[in-house]
Amino acid sequence: MHHPPVTIHDKQFSIYLPERKILHSVEIVAARLSHDYRGKRPLFLAVLNGSFMFAADLMKEMSTPCEISFIRLASYTDMQSTGSVKEIMGLNEDIKDRHVVVLEDIVDTGHTVAALLPQLRQQGPASLEVATLLIKPESLQHNLVIKYPAMSIANDFVVGYGLDYNGLGRNLRDIYKVM
Ligand SMILES: O=P(O)(O)OC[C@H]1O[C@H](OP(=O)(O)OP(=O)(O)O)[C@H](O)[C@@H]1O
Ligand SMILES: Nc1nc2[nH]cnc2c(=O)[nH]1
């Protein structure tokens, strides 16, 4: 299939990961999760907005009973310090003693997952792991164990399949990288 470059806002993007390759890697992660969480009724926590498409396709491939809920991180600057604090919003489930799997579209610097995991761990889940569609190993700035990465990519800015550039591009079926 031919994938011409796309223009989003001021930038041009070229095809990087076609849909069939994405869906194949999602199937593989779903098979691993289905195996590892059989009989454990895992609770997926998908981090909005970017993960919605990955979460939907992953759920369709799960062959063991599982639940899903959507959370997001509110980012605000703590006036007392220079660091930015990211608080979880929308977590209505009691995750105590649950097998929790965080779903991300991308782990880039790792700041988001590094902020999220301690807050979830505090609530006493039986286990806590991360599944991500994409990871940029060269960009990672935290010592994180990402047990279920679907694909590793170079340090390029990507859009599509849920990922946006200033709000646009999430609807693309394929993933593109900036030219
Ligand atoms: O590893 P990091 O460097 O923290 O980057 C990864 C995060 O960045 C994106 O979220 P964004 O804040 O753009 O929100 P969105 O999902 O609503 O697009 C993405 O969905 C991850 O959550
Ligand atoms: N769209 C998009 N969002 C990101 N958030 C962190 N890294 C990326 C990226 O490469 N693309």
UniProtKB/TrEMBL annotation:
<keyword id="KW-0479">Metal-binding</keyword>
<dbReference type="GO" id="GO:0006178">
    <property type="term" value="P:guanine salvage"/>
</dbReference>
<comment type="pathway">
    <text>Purine metabolism; IMP biosynthesis via salvage pathway; IMP from hypoxanthine: step 1/1.</text>
</comment>
<protein>
    <recommendedName>
        <fullName>Hypoxanthine phosphoribosyltransferase</fullName>
        <ecNumber>2.4.2.8</ecNumber>
    </recommendedName>
</protein>
<dbReference type="GO" id="GO:0005829">
    <property type="term" value="C:cytosol"/>
</dbReference>
<feature type="domain" description="Phosphoribosyltransferase">
    <location>
        <begin position="19"/>
        <end position="165"/>
    </location>
</feature>
<keyword id="KW-0808">Transferase</keyword>
<keyword id="KW-0460">Magnesium</keyword>
<keyword id="KW-0963">Cytoplasm</keyword>
<dbReference type="InterPro" id="IPR029057">
    <property type="entry name" value="PRTase-like"/>
</dbReference>
<keyword id="KW-0547">Nucleotide-binding</keyword>
<dbReference type="GO" id="GO:0032263">
    <property type="term" value="P:GMP salvage"/>
</dbReference>
<dbReference type="InterPro" id="IPR050408">
    <property type="entry name" value="HGPRT"/>
</dbReference>
<dbReference type="Pfam" id="PF00156">
    <property type="entry name" value="Pribosyltran"/>
</dbReference>
<dbReference type="GO" id="GO:0046100">
    <property type="term" value="P:hypoxanthine metabolic process"/>
</dbReference>
<dbReference type="GO" id="GO:0000287">
    <property type="term" value="F:magnesium ion binding"/>
</dbReference>
<dbReference type="GO" id="GO:0004422">
    <property type="term" value="F:hypoxanthine phosphoribosyltransferase activity"/>
</dbReference>
<dbReference type="InterPro" id="IPR005904">
    <property type="entry name" value="Hxn_phspho_trans"/>
</dbReference>
<keyword id="KW-0328">Glycosyltransferase</keyword>
<dbReference type="InterPro" id="IPR000836">
    <property type="entry name" value="PRTase_dom"/>
</dbReference>
<dbReference type="GO" id="GO:0000166">
    <property type="term" value="F:nucleotide binding"/>
</dbReference>
<dbReference type="GO" id="GO:0006166">
    <property type="term" value="P:purine ribonucleoside salvage"/>
</dbReference>
<dbReference type="GO" id="GO:0032264">
    <property type="term" value="P:IMP salvage"/>
</dbReference>
<keyword id="KW-0660">Purine salvage</keyword>
<comment type="similarity">
    <text>Belongs to the purine/pyrimidine phosphoribosyltransferase family.</text>
</comment>
